[in-house]
Each structure stands twice: as structure tokens, then as C-alpha cells.
Amino acid sequence: MRGRLEAAAAGAALLLAGVYGAFVRTATGQRWENAVLAGRREDETLAAARAANGVLDHITLSSLGAAVAVLLLIGLARRRSALTVAAVGTVGVSLLLAEVLKRYVLPRPDLVNAPERRLLGNSFPSGHTTIAMSVLFGLTLVVPYRWRGVAVGVCALWATFVGAYTVAAGWHRPSDTIGADLLVLAVACALTALLARSGRVRPVADRPRPLRALFVIAPLCGVALAGLGCGTVLLVDSMFRLPPGDPAVPRLAYAGGHVLAAGASAAVTLVLLALLHRVDLDRPREPATHESPHKRGL
Q1: Residues 250, 239: contact at Cβ < 8 Å?
Q2: In the chain, where do the E strands start and end?
Q3: Which of 37, 111, 199, 232 gets the highest tally of CB atoms within 10 A of its CB?
Q4: According to the model, what pLDDT value does residue 292 have?
Q5: Which of 234, 213, 220, 145 minimizes the C-alpha distance to 181?
């Protein structure tokens, strides 16, 4: 179990570097993401942008503090201090790394002579997406095993669409949200691997749960497959099939970036759920037993 989690954390970190390299450090990637932002501005109704702003405006320091308090209360009520640290640490470490990476480590060079200064703003990875996904993953870790499906079902679709909302609102590029998804997955897997190393993780023989599959796994699979599939097709069309000056490019790029962001968030959620399938994080560390010399036959 620990090996799978460590491999997943390393894989997510490598994918994050790949997304940054492909979309931020190449001229082709920059042009496509600039076209995404241009397509958002050309949306005639801007209905998606208004709805997105309404959702994103509720992600504040106050709401973040309330979410962390909920994680603390659940963990402390269950008397699982290590699990509480892992859940809250998923939020705190993810946010800290996102800010450090965005401000100091992962710059956005101008490779395409961007016509607007705002196109050079460094926004990789997305802070809003990091908040939403880290709270979701923290909740997934800290709730009891039997309630994991309910907790994910309540929060997952909202959290996975926050990345798409940031694209619709023009706050972030698609790669910003995908990078945030991968960052949170890496942190959650690394911290859970530490729990496994300390002996607090155990497999369980769970019965089939058709309602969880119907109301949690199936919707996430639908969003992941539709988002990644349609987004990839639209990305290829807007980036490679059409000439750069075609007026359809911004519209297709915006649609592709929008659905890619949602699909990536759903996909990383499914990855974490798959890693934790039939895995119970509730087990407290067993105290060391000290046998007497007579019992040891000494």
C-alpha cells in the first residue's frame, strides 16, 4: 500500500512538471492558453463567467478557515490525531507549495510576444483549485471509512468544477487548474504514505456498495471521460488543425480548456479513491508490547 501511494505521489509530481513544461514553457502551449482567455472574452452572454464568479466569490479566507475547522473537529472527535494532521496537512502543505511554486519557482516567460501584460501574470498552479481539491481530499482522509463515499459524493462534483469555474471566470488558464490538481494529489498521497509507514493503514474486506458506485463513482467517471476526451479533441483542433488566425480558434480553445479543467479534477479524485479502495485509515498505532524476561524464556 505504501509503495503505491509513494509511486502515485512521485507520478503526480512528474506530471505536474510535464504540464508546466508543455503549456508554460513552450510557445505552442502559451498560444493555446492565450486563445483560451481570448475565447472567454468573446463569449457573448458571459453567463458562465457570471455563474463562475458567484461560486468563486465564496472561496475566501473565512470559508477556508471554516473548512479546516470542520476537518479538525472530525479528526479530534474521532480521536485520530495522526489522521487529523494528515487531513489538515493536505490543505496547508498544498496551499503553501502552490504559493511558493507560483511566486518563486515556476515563472511564466514571454515566448509569444504576448499582446497584453496580463497574459504574462504567473498563475501556475491555481490557488482556488488547490483550496477546493485539498479540502475534498482532506475530508476523504479524515472521515470514517464507511462514510467516505457519502463525504466524497457531497463535495466532489462541487470541488471538481472549481477549476472549470476559474477558467470560465478568466481567472486562470487550464494548465493552472490541472497543475493544482496534481499538486494536491501528490501531497495527499505522500502524507497518506507516511500514515502507512507508521502502521495506521490496513486493508478491509468491504462488501459491494452499488449506491456509492451509482451516485459517486459513475458521475465522476462521466465528468473525467467527457472532460478529458472532449477537451483533448478541442485542444488538438484549436492548436494544430486550424490556422492560428482562424476566428474559431479562441472559441474552440475556450471550450476545450473549460472541459479539460473539469475532467482533470474528476480524474485525480478517482485516482485517490482507487488508491484508497478497501483501505481503512482508522487504525490507531498499536502500543509496543514489553514482554517479561520469563515470557521470553530468558
Answers
A1: no
A2: 202-203, 279-280
A3: 37
A4: 47
A5: 220
